[in-house]
Amino acid sequence: MARPRKVRKIFNPPKMKGFMPYGMQSLATEPVRLKFEEFESIRLINYEMLSQDAAARQMNISRPTFTRIYNRALKIIAKSFAEGKPVNIEGGNYQLDKDWYRCRKCYKLIQGLENHFKCEDCTAYGENELIKLN
Ligand SMILES: [Zn+2]
Questions:
Q1: Cα angle 8, 31, 13; round to 5
Q2: Are 55 and 93 members of one domain?
Q3: Which pLDDT belongs to residue 12?
Q4: Does residue 80 share a domain with residue 42?
Q5: What residues have their beta carbon closer than 5 A to ion ligand 1?
Q6: Host domain of residue 79
């Protein structure tokens, strides 16, 4: 029987929707996809400088699962670098600690339920313009 997949805990969603290479002849190339938990694994190891054990604990997953996610994230980024592919950061099997919304117009991240109906940085207003991330 397959074990249910454990949800990976993430504290902050990525600030951006992805990355785009520049200084290349052709940008018309298929993007690679980096899942939220893969992005978070890179952030915890290479930015927060956590050990893999500490990072696994923070994401509430086992160390082997963390290592698998992290290695996959490195492989995806290497492919993007080597082949000049854009990176889309989207989806995955994760759970954010709070409700987060992204403004569809200016891409601002908005945390919490109380402010989610209106973006303070632009004119965006309502459920169609503020998209829930989790
Ligand atoms: Zn906005």
A1: 30
A2: yes
A3: 78
A4: yes
A5: 103, 105-106, 108, 119, 121-122, 124
A6: 7-14+31-97
